[in-house]
C-alpha cells in the first residue's frame, strides 16, 4: 500500500513539547516562534524530517502555521482543515484561527505587545511572507528575528534524517523536450530580464527542467534539491550525491555542475557579488535573500522561470495524460462496479481506499505502466466524514458504510506517463431528495466549466463563479477553489494555474486543471464531482470573430446517475452528460472484462 492509515496526530505530546519550545524561546529572549508546515522548498508535500508542525501540534494537514507565544498557542489553518485541526489538537492548548481571514501577520498586529520579538527560521518562510510579517510588526515596534537554528530541531530528539532516495531520468518520449533545450530556454529568459542568476527552489521545477524524477516526498515524484541558473554558463545543481548514480549522474553531469546541498550557500555567496539575483518572492526562502544581500548582490522579484512552461504541457505530455486517464478509467470502472455489488454495511472507508489502490495497481500491470504511487492520500469519506473537505481516513476514524448515505471518494494515481485526480460521490442504496438536488446543483457547475469556450487571456478567477451559480441561486456554496493545476507525472497540485477567486494566471494551451465544485453539509454528507481538464488551443467558432479556447475532459469515469435530478438539468446539460457517458463507455468498455462492461453500460445509459 502506498497509503498508511496510521494516525500521526498525537495531541497528548503537545503540552510537553510546547513547554520545551518555550524554554528555548526564553533562552533567546523571544516572545514567540513561528512553526510553518513547510520545508526549504515551500512545497505542499514535505519529507518526514520537515514535519515540524505535525510533531509539535498533532495537526497533519498540508497547510498551516503555529504561533507559539509565552502564554498562548495559535494554530492557523484554512477552511479545508478547520474540522480536522479541532479534532487533532489539544483544545486546552491551541486556539484555531483562519489562515485566510486572519493570517498570522494580521493576528499579531492586533494581539502582540509593543516591542515583541518573534523568531522564525528564514529557510521556512518565503521572502514575501517575511516582508508582510515585518510590515505588520513595524506598527508595534516589534521585530521578526531570523534564527540560525530552528528551535523545533533543537528539541526534536528523534527527528528523521533528510531523505536520500535514488533519482531517475524521466524518458524523453514522455518529457517531450530534452533537458538541455529546456535549460537553454530558461537561460534566455534570464537574459531577457537582465538577471544574471536565479535559484530554482521548487523541486517540481527542478524535475521538469532537468528531466528527472525522485521519491523524496510522499505521493509526488520529486528529488529534493536546488539549482542556480545563469544567463550564461552552466547551471549549478545541488543534490545529495546519494540520490544520483550511474545513468542519472551521467545525465546530470552533461547539464550542470554538480554540488552537495551544503555547497549552495557558499556558491550563491560567490556569485552574488555585484550581480543581480532573481528570487521568486512567493517561493524562495528569506534565507536566500539575506545571503545575497550580505554578499554584495542585488535581489529582484523574479518569477520561477520554469513554472509557466512546466504548466503548459507539450503534446507528448498531453498524450501521456490521456493514456494515464484511460488506464485510470479502467481501474475506476472496476472499482465502482465492485462497490455496487457489495452490501454497504460490510465495507468501511479503509476497505474502499485499499480496494481502489489495488485496482489501479492491476491496471498499471496490464499496460506495462506500473503504478508508481497514488497522487495523494485517498479521501474515502462515508456519511458525515464526506463533509470534511480534506478528510484522511485512519484506523481511529475509520467508519463503516451504511445504506442511505453518500460516499465521497477523491483519489488519484501517479503513472510514469501522467498524474490523475478524480472525485466521485456515490449513493449507497436509496438517497433522499435533498441529496439528489444538491448533487445535481454541483453537477451543473461542473458541466458549466466543462462546456465553456473562452477567449485567450481569460484567468481562472474570471470563470470560477460559473461553477457556483446554480448553488448560489439556492443559497449554497463551497469553501474551496473550483480547480487546481496538475503536473505531468509531477505534483497533483501545480501552479500557477487555478480556477478560483484568487486565480490570476491566464489559462493557456496545454494547462491541465481540475474541475471540482462541491457541497458539504457538516455532520451529514459531502458532495464533490471532479474531472481533470486540459486547455485546448484557440479555435474558430462558427460565425464568430474570435478564436476560443475550450476544455478537453481527460477523466473517464461514470457519474452516479442515481443522484441526478433530471428536472434540474437543462437540455444542454443533459446532452453533455449523455455524450460524456457515451464516451466513457466507448473508451473504457474495451479495457475491462464483460461483467464490468455490462455494469458500465448500465451506469452510462442516457438520461
Describe the model:
The chain is of the alpha+beta class. The protein has three domains: 11-155, Creatine Amidinohydrolase, Chain A, domain 1 (3-Layer(aba) Sandwich), CATH 3.40.350; 168-305, Creatine Amidinohydrolase, Chain A, domain 1 (3-Layer(aba) Sandwich), CATH 3.40.350; 312-601, Alpha-Beta Complex (Creatine Amidinohydrolase), CATH 3.90.230.10. The protein is built from 20 helices and 28 strands. The longest helix is centred in the middle third of the chain and has 26 residues, at 315-340.
Number of domains: 3
| CATH topology heading of the largest domain | Creatine Amidinohydrolase
Task: Compute the number of strand runs.
Answer: 28
Oligomer: single chain
Poorly predicted sequence stretches spanning 5 or more consecutive residues: none
From the N-terminal CA to the C-terminal CA, the straight-line distance is 38 Å
Query: What is the CATH-assigned architecture of the largest domain?
Result: Alpha-Beta Complex
The pLDDT mean sits at 96
Largest beta-sheet details: 6 strands, mixed
Shape: globular
State the helical fraction.
Answer: 25-40%
Which percent range describes the beta-strand content?
A: 15-25%
Based on secondary structure, the structural category is alpha+beta
Descriptive tags:
607 residues, alpha+beta, Creatine Amidinohydrolase, Chain A, domain 1, Creatine Amidinohydrolase, 6-stranded mixed β-sheet, 20 helices
Quick description:
By secondary structure, the chain is α+β, with helices and mostly antiparallel strands. Helices cover 34% and strands 19% of the residues. The protein is built from 20 helices and 28 strands.
